[in-house]
Amino acid sequence: MVVKEIIYKHLTENEIKSPFDGEYWPSQMWYCLRRQYYDRIFPSATTYDMTRFTVLGEALHNLIADMLKNEEGISVISEVPIRIPHPKNPEIVFSGRADDIIIVQFTKERYVIEVKSTEDLESKVKKGFLPKKEHKAQLNLYLRAYPKSHGILLYVDRGNFTMEEIPIEFNAELYESTLQRAEELHKYLNERKTPPPEGKNNLDFNWQCNYCIHKARCDREQ
Q1: Longest alpha-carbon distance in the chain
Q2: How many alpha carbons fall within 13 Å on the CB side of residue 189?
Q3: Among 148, 161, 143, 207, residue whose Cα is nearest residue 59
Q4: Tell me, what DSSP letter sits at residue 107?
Q5: Which residues, in sequence order, are CB contacts of 108 under 8 Å at separation 6+?
Q6: Using one digit for the tens of pLDDT, what is the confidence trace for 67-89?
Q7: CB 29 within 8 A of CB 137
Q8: Cα angle, residue 107 at apex, residues 103 and 108 outer, rounded to 5°
Q9: Which of 22, 119, 8 is nearest to 55 (CA)?
Q10: Which of 92, 103, 117, 198 would give a disulfide with 32, using CB separation of 3.0 to 4.6 Å?
């Protein structure tokens, strides 16, 4: 079909995003360290599978933000710019535009909502697969940027639009772990030393190997 070919064409024509040295995206900080290293040393366009999930996620984010904006009595901000300097290392900053969070102000309360799309939502919740640590860590950074806010991880099933709302409060220990990951990655990049393959060595990261564009390079390097 002509329509499908046009859509596929646009989905595969994604630009390669190269962050500045020392700038790290909150959404990627709990990706496999080796993958993050390769992303910066050997930047490549994302695959079609990854792009289509990103497009679906952005569409859900915009839809939910628009619904909330139509509700009387609350203030909504979406696509918020984020910049969080590392408290101990001036060379490191968490930076970027948060495409998947929505800031909601209701009376004197502020909520930071992170929208994530998934499949088989009900089954994953029952089995304890959600919320994912990387999602909690990402939202935790945003809660650091917006003190005294309440966090909400909103999972939306791509198949039937069922939703699960999971409250999240700021976790100082998780924040420190994220800072340490940024320090580790920064050190590997400065030394041009390849990190160990977390995706292969850690079950929590193993699923990332299925979608990694650097898999062949990673297998060669061991």
Answers
A1: 56
A2: 23
A3: 161
A4: T
A5: none
A6: 988 888 888 887 778 889 999 99
A7: yes
A8: 80
A9: 8
A10: 198
Q: Which two tokens stand for residue 2?
A: 């002509």
User: Per the structure block, which two tokens stand in for 141?
Assistant: 């950074």
CA distance 38 to 171: 29
Asked if residues 6 and 34 have their Cβ atoms less than 8 Å apart, the reply is no
Are the C-beta atoms of 14 and 51 separated by less than 8 Å? yes
Token pair in block for residue 180: 């340490």
pLDDT tens across 163-187, in order? Answer: 999 999 999 999 999 999 999 999 9
pLDDT of residue 11: 59
pLDDT in tens, 95-146: 876 666 899 988 889 999 999 999 999 999 988 889 999 999 999 999 999 9
Give the pair of three-digit tokens for residue 213.
Answer: 């564009």
Q: Is the pLDDT of residue 4 over 90?
A: no
Output the pTM of the full model: 0.87
* Dihedral of alpha carbons 33, 93, 132, 211, sign: negative
User: Which residue type does 49 have?
Assistant: D
Q: Helix H segments across 166-221?
A: 172-191, 198-201, 215-221
State both tokens at 190. 């400065």
Question: For 35-67, what is each residue's pLDDT tens digit?
Answer: 999 999 998 766 666 677 777 778 888 889 889
- Contacts with 109 (C-beta within 8 Å, 6 or more apart), sequence order: 150
